[in-house]
Automatic annotation (TrEMBL):
Keywords noted in UniProt: Phosphoprotein
Protein name from the UniProt record: Transcriptional regulatory protein WalR
Organism of origin: Candidatus Nanogingivalis gingivitcus
Segments forming domain Response regulatory: 3-118
SUPFAM superfamilies from the UniProt entry: CheY-like
Gene3D superfamilies found in the cross-reference section: 3.40.50.2300
Positions where 4-aspartylphosphate occurs in the chain: D51
InterPro entries tied to this protein: Bact_response_regulator, CheY-like_superfamily, Sig_transdc_resp-reg_receiver
Amino acid sequence: MAKILIIEDNQIMADNFTLILKGFFDIECINSAEGAMDIINKNLPDIIILDVLLNGHSAFALLNELQSYQDTANIPIIICSNLANHLDMKTIRHYNVHKVIDKSIITPDILINSCREIGANFK
């Protein structure tokens, strides 16, 4: 089963994402970018679902750190954010971002299908 790391500081959103995905994927959650690298180094995920607006370190600091290591640079990223309309895919694709999903219109099907699509591309 593919492993997904959800990095989301809104506990309700994190819980909802977990409930939606847990029947299809092995899920782990963390609420900050600071602790994410420890989890990633212990158990390399197949996909990361990342919120942009996090407490503490920004998601972009984490994306930069992921790109600096050979074993983490190729982990596919799905950004789920209320800022989705403000992100330029040409710019963030460098960080191995494969999809940007607007939290305001996300549905369970969108989330599941996005993870399946990205996971299938990397098997």
